[in-house]
Design a protein that fits this description.
The complex is a heterotrimer of chains A (244), B (89) and C (199).
Chain A lengths: L3 E13 L2 E7 L11 E7 L5 E7 L8 E7 L5 H8 L6 E8 L13 E6 L3 H14 L5 E7 L21 E7 L16 H7 L8 E6 L1 H13 L7 E5 L8
Chain B lengths: L5 E3 L4 H5 L10 E3 L6 E3 L4 E3 L5 E4 L6 E8 L2 E5 L5 E3 L5
Antiparallel strand pairs in B: 1-4, 2-3, 2-8, 4-5, 5-6, 6-7
Chain C lengths: L23 E2 L20 E5 L5 E5 H5 L7 E5 L4 E12 H4 L9 E6 L4 E5 L9 E6 L2 E2 L9 E3 L12 E7 L28
Parallel strand pairs in C: 1-5, 2-11
Antiparallel strand pairs in C: 2-3, 4-5, 5-8, 6-7, 6-11, 8-9, 8-10
Classes of the chains: A alpha/beta (244), B mainly beta (89), C mainly beta (199).
Pfam families (chain C): Oxidored_molyb (PF00174)
Organism (chain C): Nocardiopsis tropica
Protein name (chain C): Sulfite oxidase-like oxidoreductase
């Protein structure tokens, strides 16, 4: 049984107007693999509880984990975590959870990461873990996001940090692209998955994460491009956006 | 919308961790009805009902249902078929 | 003992006369699901009532639509904690469908296309308490909400209101349905918070 552990907010960062990264101190955290998630439980004074799953955004770094939470309209858990939760406050977390949607940091295989919206969160954990362990595996990240101000991790993902050599980022803006961008707004298409990912002959491991419809479309396209379905791993968030 | 929103069986990892000591979501499975082989995590799970319902992504057979009440976990594994859990060696 | 999260209140401020304990009012219509949505063509749809004797009445879609129609406006309460007030439906009262059925049974099991089942006392289906509906808010009932037709029994938690209903069997003994087998309450009165077995 995976225990519930108290998790105290140590620090926070705004990624966008509606998404906040929570830095949590979790005494006894056993460590995690990149791509895993946690369940977060909130308990009100009258005993009412609510819980949701969130992907871990950070590399495996001791007893501190980071989650990035997107505010979902009408979402009681995400609204609390984004707008009310203050440094020093505590929630409970259970994890790490899930052994399938995880990147094996010891593997040299090339990796294609495809994220839609907040689906970029577990992919960021993989990029960070790659940097932490000094992996040379080649990463290609395809990030579908509505407009420039919706991008998470702007100063980090694709910013060529030391240790990120071999990580390429392609951003597909679906509603509005930056003015200087040669690519107009539009959905991430199969041709772009082919061009900005790896060819199937390279036998990359593919991780696809995001809203259910996005994941279905992108994973179907990867399989149609010849990728082995067993090497296309998916994590559907449902339609909510913020919850895992 | 024509389908209830489903997620992957990754979402079962937390609820199942309350009663199982291994992570079933990474286990391989063979469907008891259509014979499709895959990984447990690839099941489709609907999470917006009174409990969690997992179905085969190929033939839609109901594989598992799970209800968490305040004092119990109720789990029906009736459609699970064969599961292979790799042990750490 | 859970850690109490400072500042987390859940959803308070509900009208206790209209919204049962532990529920909150929603203005959406969340989809409540138990797996994939069955597709049922009205040309192949039938609804049946099978008495404990085995005698069965069957209605085709045309026959069902020719029965006297009612337009109940009711509040519905889902065990996942949302309640929706003043919902408008159109369909046939179970009083009409059970009118000519000879039975001494006390229980009913509703069955759906797709395999879903739910159990209720027969007396909760009569006296203007339950309907088979085909219209919500003036529109044909969408498949994700149970179309072409679903049961509604608004005084019980909404999982009793079987979507994609195909028939009702009358039984001498209570037989737990899909969720009732898995820990949910056999009766499910929202005003007594009968969510789980033993509540």
């Amino acid at each position: 049984m995976v225990a519930w552990r108290p998790a105290t907010l140590a620090a926070d960062r705004w990624e966008t107007d509606s998404a906040r990264t929570l830095v949590l101190d979790v005494p006894g955290w056993p460590g995690h693999r990149a791509g895993q998630h946690v369940d977060v439980r909130l308990t009100a004074e009258d005993g009412y509880t609510a819980q949701r799953g969130y992907s871990v955004a950070s590399a495996d770094e001791g007893e501190r984990i980071e989650l990035t939470v997107q505010r979902v309209e009408g979402g009681e858990v995400s609204s609390y975590l984004v707008d009310v939760f203050a440094p020093g406050d505590a929630v409970e977390v259970r994890g790490p959870l899930g052994g399938w949607f995880v990147w094996d940091a010891a593997s040299p295989d090339p990796v294609v990461l495809v994220g839609g919206g907040s689906g970029v969160v577990p992919l960021m954990a993989m990029v960070r873990e790659r940097r932490r362990v000094g992996s040379r595996a080649l990463f290609r990240v395809l990030y579908s996001v509505r407009m420039p101000e919706d991008r998470y991790y702007r100063g980090e993902l694709g910013a060529h940090r030391p240790g990120d050599g071999g990580v390429d980022l392609f951003v597909a803006y679906t509603r509005r692209a930056p003015e200087a961008s040669p690519r107009g707004p539009g959905r991430l298409g199969a041709a772009e998955l082919n061009t900005h990912g790896f060819p199937a002959e390279f036998a990359p491991v593919c991780f696809v994460c995001g809203p259910t419809g996005f994941v279905e479309t992108a994973s179907d396209a990867l399989v149609a491009l010849g990728h082995d379905p067993r090497r296309v791993r998916t994590e559907r968030f449902g339609s909510g956006g913020g919850a895992r | 919308m024509t389908e209830p929103e489903h997620v992957d069986a990754n979402a079962l990892a937390g609820p199942l961790s309350e009663i199982l000591s291994v992570d079933l979501t990474a286990a391989e499975r063979r469907c008891s009805v259509c014979g499709a082989c895959g990984v447990f995590a690839e099941l489709h799970v609907t999470v917006d009902g009174p409990g969690l319902v997992a179905s085969c992504p190929v033939c839609r057979t109901l594989v598992l249902r799970l209800v968490r009440t305040p004092d119990s976990v109720w789990v029906d594994l009736g459609g699970t078929g064969v599961v292979r859990v790799r042990l750490e060696t | 003992m859970n850690v109490v999260t400072r500042g987390f209140r859940g959803r308070g401020g509900q009208d206790p006369a209209r919204v049962p304990p532990g529920q909150y009012e929603t203005h959406d219509f969340p989809v409540l699901s138990a797996g994939p949505t069955p597709r049922v063509d009205t040309g192949e749809w039938t609804f049946s009532v099978e008495a404990e004797t085995g005698r069965t009445r069957v209605w085709t879609w045309e026959e069902f639509r020719a029965l006297p129609q009612e337009r109940p406006r009711v509040d519905i309460h889902c065990v996942t904690r949302w309640s929706k007030l003043d919902t408008d439906w159109e369909g046939v009262s179970l009083d009409v469908l059970l009118e000519d059925v000879e039975t001494t049974a006390e229980y009913a099991l509703a069955s759906s296309y797709g395999g879903y089942t739910t159990n209720l006392p027969l007396q909760d289906l009569t006296d203007g308490q339950a309907w088979i509906v085909h219209t919500f808010d003036g529109e044909p009932l969408a498949p994700e909400h149970g179309g072409p037709a679903r049961l509604i029994v608004p005084h019980l938690y909404f999982w009793k209101s079987a979507k994609w209903v195909r028939g009702i069997s009358l039984l001498h003994q209570d037989e737990p349905g899909f969720w009732e087998q898995a820990g949910y309450h056999d009766y499910g009165d929202p005003w007594r918070e009968q969510r789980y077995r033993g509540d």
